Amino acid sequence: MKIQIPDSLKEDAPKNNWGKILTATPIIMTVISTMLAGLASSEMTRAQYSRSLGAQQQAKAGDQWGYFQAKRLRGAMQRSTLDLLQATVTLNPIDASTFPNLAPAAVAAIQKGELPPLPPEIEMAPAIRSAVDMLDAAKSDEEIAVPLNSLDLQTITSTERAARERADRYDDVTKPVTKVIDDLEKSLIGSGQERVRDFTASRLRYTSARYETEARLNQTIAQMLELQVRKSNLIAERHRHRSQRFFFGMLGAQLAVIISTFSLAAKARSALWMFAASAGITAVVFAVWVFFYV
Prior knowledge:
The protein is an all-alpha fold. The protein is about 80% helix and about 0% strand.
């Protein structure tokens, strides 16, 4: 039995390729709308991840700033005690020859309060130095964002890691000297009040300088962590803006779906189809611009 297609349906069928394309507009726009919805959701997920990462980095930065302040406070207390001791009693210089077999670093620490040499300076990108200077000057977030926009998070993280390794290396250098001083102080117990007092003053001089130096090393680590927080927040804001714009693109594609769907039931559908196609093309162009340039 041969199936006959009614003439009314034949009239509604597309007459040429252009008509077929226009008839497929709702399907195409639905696919595009779904893709844009997925991109908007993906960008929002990335924004939330960056916010969460920034919160974790902020906690680490807070701990590091607290460590920096503790070091500075200890150094200040050591200096205050030394000043009080110098103002109340007469102190004599330590004769290191009375302590045989001391390393030169320990002799310099006991006699003059000299510290072991610092490890080499870490390499720091100009943009990071600029951002650190702005942090120290309490500049606004908008001003600090200018140098940070030219950096990626990995660069800041690598600099923070290098600063931490530098602090660890210096700690490894000072530990033997500190141990020698502690052992000598214990050995002097019972050897005379004046001699113990003089040695205590030398130890205070050395430890106050050591705490101050260690505080500065930890300050650099805290600054790098602070920049990581700022950068993560900037990344989160960028993804949030991209998500918002992809959402607007999705709305444009859905508008094209609605218009093209209505046009299927209209007699004079050319204008509606063209309007739907224009809305869809605009949504696609807008989404491409957001993807590559925002």
